[in-house]
Amino acid sequence: METQLLTRLQETLDASVTLAQEFNELLEKEKKQLTSSELESVTALLHDKEKLTETLMQHQKSILGICQSVGIDPSYGALRSFLYRTGIDQAEHILKEWTKLKNALIKSQALNKTNEAILSELMRRNKIKQQLINNVGRYGNTYGRNGETQSGQALGWVEQV
Q: Its domain of life (predicted)?
């Protein structure tokens, strides 16, 4: 029974590492698009990002379920102790994949934070641009039909339309 669970754990870890690496590539692509003029294509990545996130969450549930089934905490130390106690042949491979997954997910978190910061800055800049456009003509001199100066306009030209 434990052998089957550990085989499933190894397969799930292998698949999770691959997915996490794909997710990191996607986040790198997102970062590149956020910092270029290809902002429209960022939304095209959302579907892939959601799909990978959902699949990674399913794998996480599976890993947590396996750990619970064998009665260990989902931590490297607990897994290591358990694997060496059971004397399983692929213990080193499982631990190596666990570490790879953890490192890939840490990288994902950092990339995501970077992308959030870039997006936040873009939104801040957009807000400033919007305010500039809304304020064009505000309290400035304008000219009427007859060519006379009309000063102290209360609204910007965008708001007047």
A: Bacteria
Q: pTM for this one?
A: 0.76
Burial 53-72 (b: 16+ CB within 10 A, else e): eeebeebeebbeebbeebeb
Domain that holds residue 35: 2-135
Residue 144 belongs to some domain of the structure: no
* pLDDT tens track for 88-123: 888 999 999 999 999 999 999 999 999 999 989 988
User: In total, how many domains does the chain have?
Assistant: 1
